[in-house]
Recover the amino acids of this structure.
């Protein structure tokens, strides 16, 4: 077996999303667990096939939204009723009625920050380098190639055997990529 | 045989042609990327020189305004809000169609939005940039424009008035601009990675590598990405409705006849979508022609947008009629004076009837399929609609202000050359940003179009099977 510390995994490069999906299902059936698929666009049902857990992004967004809501209430109450109380047309110093537009806007703003920056954080981006970019055909992934990587950390990984397996699934090309 | 033709027709209808000529994934990458990869055409420099000069003129006008004062505009008692607010609302409204296409149509699973959403979102951003200029320079001392935000500072020993709709507007518009920019960027990241992977020169590779943040399209990436996109669409939908609602509060919460109406929020939102879609049609017709992407932005897209223009045009017309009805039915003499005298028959009759002609009458032609699928015709109508929508904002602002309650405070708004050239200049800025966008960025969402094609291929497969099952025969395609 090759030296595991320097090898990232075995690439199987497929022509179509359907072939990739079949290969993922077959790989999991064969007992492989450390898999990652790389595709030019999101493929419907791939998370189920990979056995991936649903994204936790929603929880991050809800928390950020709650922070935005709290900031908006405190900001409007503190500035208007505590720090600089000023009577304007006899209106109350603070009331939820007039505070609602800004409460809404800040909730949305912080939720959006949560969605965008949370997504990048969960994806580990920005990232300067990733072993995938050592693959000679990596450029195809953002075009029309559908790639399955069986990682070297998998207990069943074996360079020759895994290559055989991927070719048997119809991979047009396989390649061992380094860390 | 007749049955077969019928089924084929049905199939064609169900899977309306969103991309012609059955392009495969690589063709889509090529078609979109090549636009930015070819050597810069001479015409691009010419276009940039023209739009850049117009933007420069705007810069001069703004510089003149800053050194002299807001008095260089035609705003004066009793018309304290003139072209500045008109143009602000005009540009914000145009932006709304972009968010509608990218967010609301996404939630409604309207697949036809895919080829036009990138372009429409860019339009939103650029329109918001044009709109944001006005409040910034209208404050009188633009170097203190940051006082609009609750930023602690040593000069302003007080806080903003959160009971004022103008401050709500600051929050609404800046949130809208920020969220639109984020939404746009999130959509761009996978396509920027495509550009990175296709880059031939080191500089190009490096800049797109930085811009795409190391995106590699793993299943994990896409999982979080799709979730983020869905959440952003869900957030943007109420946001876009809130923005024009809050813009309309600037007027509706005042006690001025003609402004003090509860109809304003929905009426402003419908008008914003109306003008925004018209602007998308104007720009798409030009872009299709220049960049030869007719197979990706098809007649179906244009026709659908024209249907939206027709629908929102009817809503706007209905709102105009309701305003008149309420002015009469309420029995309020001030309200009916504004509508029956100031607007329809007074000194601004020409602006009012231009508005009605452009906004209510001109979209009615789109009831006819021949006209709404005719490119030169829709181009002209889309421009007329935007002229009409500019007049709408001008009519609302000027007619309600020009005759104060005392006849001694009556006046008539006349724009100065600074008003006029600043407004023309904002078009220069808008187009300059477009000129850069179409040159350097993917103008069509490459990844999304591919995803849609893959989904369609699956659906067609099922349709083939359904058609075959209904006839008890082999699938239609199987004979070949």
């Amino acid at each position: 077996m090759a030296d595991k510390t320097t090898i990232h995994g075995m690439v199987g490069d497929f022509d179509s999303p359907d072939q990739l999906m079949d290969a993922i299902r077959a790989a999991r059936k064969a007992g492989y667990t450390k898999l990652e698929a790389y595709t030019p666009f999101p493929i419907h049902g791939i998370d189920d096939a990979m056995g991936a857990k649903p994204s936790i992004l929603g929880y991050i967004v809800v928390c950020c939204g709650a922070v935005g809501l709290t900031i908006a209430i405190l900001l409007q109450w503190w500035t208007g009723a505590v720090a600089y109380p000023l009577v304007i047309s006899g209106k109350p110093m603070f009331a939820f009625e007039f505070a609602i537009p800004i409460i809404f806007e800040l909730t949305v703003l912080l939720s959006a920050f949560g969605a965008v920056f949370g997504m990048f954080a969960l994806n580990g981006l920005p990232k300067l380098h990733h072993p995938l970019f050592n693959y000679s055909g990596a450029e195809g992934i953002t075009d029309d190639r559908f790639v399955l990587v069986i990682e070297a950390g998998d207990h069943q990984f074996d360079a020759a055997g895994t290559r055989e397996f991927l070719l048997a699934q119809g991979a047009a090309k396989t390649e061992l990529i380094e860390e | 045989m007749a049955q077969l033709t019928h089924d084929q027709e049905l199939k064609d209808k169900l899977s309306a042609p969103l991309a012609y000529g059955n392009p495969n994934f690589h063709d889509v990458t090529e078609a979109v990327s090549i636009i930015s990869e070819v050597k810069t055409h001479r015409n691009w420099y010419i276009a940039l020189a023209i739009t850049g000069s117009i933007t420069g003129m705007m810069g001069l006008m703004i510089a003149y305004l800053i050194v002299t004062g807001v008095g260089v505009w035609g705003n004066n008692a009793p018309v304290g809000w003139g072209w500045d607010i008109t143009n602000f609302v005009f540009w914000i409204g145009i932006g709304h169609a972009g968010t509608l296409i990218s967010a609301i149509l996404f939630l409604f699973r309207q697949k036809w939005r895919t080829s036009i959403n990138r372009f429409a979102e860019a339009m939103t951003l650029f329109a918001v940039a044009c709109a944001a200029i006005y409040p910034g320079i209208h404050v009188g001392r633009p170097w203190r424009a940051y006082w609009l935000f609750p930023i602690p500072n040593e000069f302003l020993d007080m806080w903003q008035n959160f009971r004022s709709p103008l401050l709500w507007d600051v929050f609404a518009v800046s949130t809208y601009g920020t969220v639109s920019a984020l939404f746009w960027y999130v959509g761009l990241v996978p396509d920027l990675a495509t550009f990175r992977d296709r880059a031939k020169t080191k500089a190009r590779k490096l800049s797109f590598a930085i811009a795409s943040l190391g995106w590699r399209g793993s299943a994990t990436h896409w999982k979080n990405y799709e979730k983020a996109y869905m959440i952003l669409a869900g957030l943007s939908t109420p946001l876009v409705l809130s923005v024009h609602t809050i813009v309309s509060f600037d007027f509706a919460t005042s006690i001025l006849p003609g402004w003090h109406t509860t109809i304003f929020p929905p009426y402003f939102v419908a008008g914003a979508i109306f003008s925004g879609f018209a602007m998308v049609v104007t720009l798409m017709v030009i872009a299709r022609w220049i960049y030869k992407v007719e197979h990706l932005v098809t007649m179906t897209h244009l026709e659908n947008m024209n249907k939206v223009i027709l629908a929102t045009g009817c809503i706007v017309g209905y709102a105009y009629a309701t305003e008149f009805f309420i002015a009469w039915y309420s029995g309020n003499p001030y309200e009916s004076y504004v509508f029956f005298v100031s607007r329809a028959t007074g000194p601004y009759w020409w602006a009012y009837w231009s508005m009605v002609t452009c906004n209510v009458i001109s979209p009615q032609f789109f009831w006819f399929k021949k006209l709404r699928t005719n490119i030169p015709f829709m181009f002209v109508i889309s421009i007329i609609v935007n002229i009409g929508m500019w007049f709408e904002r001008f009519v609302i602002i000027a007619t309600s202000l020009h005759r104060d309650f005392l006849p001694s405070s009556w006046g008539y708004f006349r724009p100065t050359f600074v008003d006029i050239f600043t407004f023309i200049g904002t078009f220069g800025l808008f187009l300059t940003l477009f000129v850069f966008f179409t040159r350097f960025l993917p103008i069509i969402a490459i990844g999304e179009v591919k995803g849609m094609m893959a989904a369609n291929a699956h659906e067609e497969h099922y349709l083939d099977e359904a058609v075959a099952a209904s006839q008890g025969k082999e699938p239609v395609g199987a004979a070949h």
In short: The radius of gyration of chain A is 25 Å.
